[in-house]
């Protein structure tokens, strides 16, 4: 009887995720389940952002922190076949809702959120180069540059507002640049491993296209408690061509590519 309840709850999660996104969960290749979620390979060395973000931090962040989120979300959904066919993107809308069995609700919210957030975070970083260090990446690709100018007036205002948002996060959390359903941009913040896609937890449902991790594990080894210094360094290694592709994907409905990696 208990298993029937769990399966029914898991099916409700799948239905809720599909209804929030406006489509049924896509079948996995050859009908195989997506379980377990597998961590891809990082597409650049841990030292790629040196000296702005240090090698040791990136190694621990990717191979320890993110790996633990994968381990924990896989463990949480192991008894629930209906959850196992969902991508991490499809888990996001339902996070924090009663549709998730109570005994795994917190684990799904924290760890599926941790997986999604970190995949986006690492994908929008690029190696530190003389060119990026000189320009601070302010020469934006056309589409996302126009959207930023339309929403915020110019890049300088956007950068100031985003930096202030990242500094305002109390304790651990994230700052995001998101795209609403009407294509407009917004700056949002979330605590812990929450993100704006978690409508079940009361967030906007907007699609994140740029995010900065302001948990201390993202910067403490090099910057200690100097979060402003870390944020300023992070701007130099934002991969704006990738953010532009994220923006185009968000506005065209191809949202799964935002956190997909070539090796995944």
UniProtKB/TrEMBL annotation:
Enzyme class, first EC level, given as a word: oxidoreductase
Keyword terms, alphabetized: Metal-binding, Oxidoreductase, Signal
Pfam families attached to this UniProt entry: Sod_Fe_C, Sod_Fe_N
Manganese/iron superoxide dismutase C-terminal domain residues: 143-245
Enzyme Commission designation: 1.15.1.1
Manganese/iron superoxide dismutase N-terminal domain ranges (all copies): 40-125
Signal peptide: 1-22
Keyword Magnesium: no
Family the UniProt entry places it in: Belongs to the iron/manganese superoxide dismutase family.
PANTHER family cross-referenced by the UniProt entry: 37S RIBOSOMAL PROTEIN S26, MITOCHONDRIAL, SMALL RIBOSOMAL SUBUNIT PROTEIN MS42
Full protein name: superoxide dismutase
